[in-house]
């Protein structure tokens, strides 16, 4: 059986009515059906079935009342028109009352039994409604399966063509590796990544100490920078004095000495 045949069978209209549900238990109805019967509509739903049930309950209650009324009238007329007329004495009334009391007790038991059966039927109906809705959902899902299968087959063909093209013209050899080499490569990459993460974490832990050292060195270099500026200023003045014929040998010697001190400090501080 193919998918379309199965779906057509599931989508076939099913008659959901009280009369249809009662066919396996009761005698089949007469072939002639009334058009006004609300249960003969083939398009039924659980809510419509509940409406049918309420309708038949009301109808049976009316029929029961009519039956009791007709039987009472018939008995009264027979008693009046009989020849001789039927007369009932007190003993017969007492006997009838005892029989009626016994019948009422039996009727009460029957009502309790029917009530329990109706409760079980309601539970079973609720369960069947849930199952019916689940079947409808599955049918809708099955209807969408053929299109999804076609799309998946198209995707598989495209992937196979792409894989064949990669085999003929490999642009990334890593994609053509086997499972075990791929796992080994992945493990090595993860190890390298873990090492880099550890180094970054160590550098981040050392960063505050480095910043503190740099701040201290900058504080120590500030006086040297001021002395350098003063020495440069003195050297320039000595140079100008020498060019003007003055004696700036002492200032020149002092400038050389300061430049040497500056170079030594820079070498020691690595700045």
Automatic annotation (TrEMBL):
- Which Pfam families is this protein grouped with? Sos7
Q: Which keywords belong to this entry?
A: Coiled coil
Bias (Basic and acidic residues) ranges: 34-43
Specify the superkingdom: Eukaryota
According to its UniProt entry, one GO biological process term is:
protein localization to kinetochore
* Coiled coil regions, renumbered to chain: 93-162
Region (Disordered) residue ranges read 23-46
Residues covered by the Kinetochore protein Sos7 coiled-coil domain: 58-132
Q: Which GO terms describe its cellular component?
A: kinetochore
Name the chain's protein.
Answer: Kinetochore protein Sos7 coiled-coil domain-containing protein
